[in-house]
Amino acid sequence: MSEQVHDLSQAAPSLLSSKGDDDIIQINAMHKWYGDFHVLKNINLTVKSKERIVICGPSGSGKSTLIRCINRLEEHQQGDIIVDGIELTNDLKNIDLIRREVGMVFQHFNLFPHLTVLENCTLGPIWVRQTPKKLAEETAMKFLEKVKIPEQALKFPGQLSGGQQQRVAIARSLCMNPKIMLFDEPTSALDPEMIKEVLDTMIELAETGMTMLCVTHEMGFAKTVADRVIFMDGGEIIEENVPDDFFDNPQHERTKLFLSQILAH
Amino acid sequence: MSQATMSSGQTYKPGEHPSLPPPSSVKGPIAWAKENLFGSITNTLLTLLALYFLYKIIPALAQWMYVDAVFTGESRNDCRAQAPGACWAFIGSRLKLFIYGFYPEPERWRVNLSAVLLILALIPVLFDNVPHRGKALIYSCVYPLIAAWLLVGGFGLTRVPTDQFGGLMLNVVIGVTGIVFSLPIGICLALGRRSNLPIIRILSVSFIEFIRGVPLITLLFVAAVMLSYFVPPGTNFDLLVRMLIMVTLFASGYMAEVIRGGLQAIPRGQYEAADAMGLKYWQSMRLIVLPQALKISIPGIVNTFIGLYKDTTLVIVIGRLDILGIGNSSLADSKWQGLSTEVYVFVAVFFFISCFLMSRYSLYLEKKLHSGH
What we know:
By secondary structure, chain A is an alpha/beta fold. Chain A has helices at 8-11, 63-70, 92-101, 117-127, 133-146, 162-175, 192-207, 219-225, 243-248, 253-262; strands spanning 23-34, 37-48, 52-56, 78-83, 86-87, 102-105, 180-184, 211-215, 228-233, 236-241.
């Protein structure tokens, strides 16, 4: 990896390196079932490189499942998903290739509790990208500085607050130098005073031009950052629009109801 | 009380109250005793009862084991003539038999040497702050071969048939072999039982269930008698090796279930985070899942080790004399008749020390691996 990335501002893939046109994710007529339960119904979604998308919807609407299909944490049964020019099939090689390019941040952080913060960040680069340990550590420290917790590098995740853990999780994903970042309700498990520090980190990341898909209920974040907001319900994409129109002029009854509920208080 | 009044007497502005040391009533040995030994009426009664029993037992035991004990003597009558306590002279006169069994006298240095080398091989495995640990671990991996060569002989050393192994040495050989090999086999079985591949899963489940469903003695009999039907006639499949295999497999079956318990305690998010990062199956097992699962399983793993170690005395059923077997057969000596208490206390103390060390080590390891979550 000669173009090792040391800076969030360089973390976005250059347009030259993306294959073909700049549609980095293409999902066509995708369906998924959990047993008999039809959880995702005919999903069609195209994401351009550097695009920032917020996915919202009531719980159980399939929004988490959708982004988890993109890095194959969940398997889809029908339709195609093409990420960075690679089609997701049962081929383990393709899955590994895609997972290298797609970072994911989870609701419950999922840091590795037996490793220090620094080791959490260097594990992927060392074992998946075969980066030399020293270089991986330098990169990790740079990203930990970006998320403003370099002084915690040698602590264990269990010694950090929730907000700090989530920022480590973001740094850990960025250390892999991904082209796409998926966020699965990154602030839902946090205390209110910690939500802001995580959102600030995400906004900063968005400003660097990273392709981002965020499942979140933070509508303020959606308004400031998103290029597009997608509303899901019952396993379908009900509506998608630019944030201003989405919030001020929702088209669908279901969207209006949802917005009135979450913006009521 | 002085601190309590001091802290309540002083007033601080809101937001400026400093952290104060706790009053003496919640800290220190007296507070500890009050809290833990005399916390309630039941607690106090139990404490007093326990103290009474200790008062009854300890002096009598010390009297028998040490004060009135005889350490030199030629026979039982010799002992009894000197003092009424334990006749350790008996154990002393047979100590070499207890340790080496029937290992030929001039070759016993080989047993001693392999014991020293064993300790050297264990140090880098047990403690991670040894200098040059990486190189030392290579030695630890080679050690089993060195030990086998030293103990059995060949390649320049006189061959010692394994039926001359006995005593404490036999227990250690079987125990260490079982412990060393049952852990990796157990890990593989546990992972196999959770595998997505049906063949591997079915094989692992059947193996584990078979092993757990059959008593160890039965397996040892099978090893001693039946296994020779399955190997081609004329091949000399050493009885000790068969026993080692059976003991190891038996412990692996239990080990697998202990580790499976640990694996099940790992949240799904850990697997997902490892997958999302692009780690391959074996990488995520080795780097993420197993370190955590094994840590959780330490008490169960050590439990299995201790059980295995004590089960080594079962080799008596197929005619090999371990430390307990030697003790039993020594009792038949007419010069020393009637000293079974001494023999069994000696054997019990030996096992207690070994097992207690293992359990202490496991506590040390648990503390060391605790990473604040």
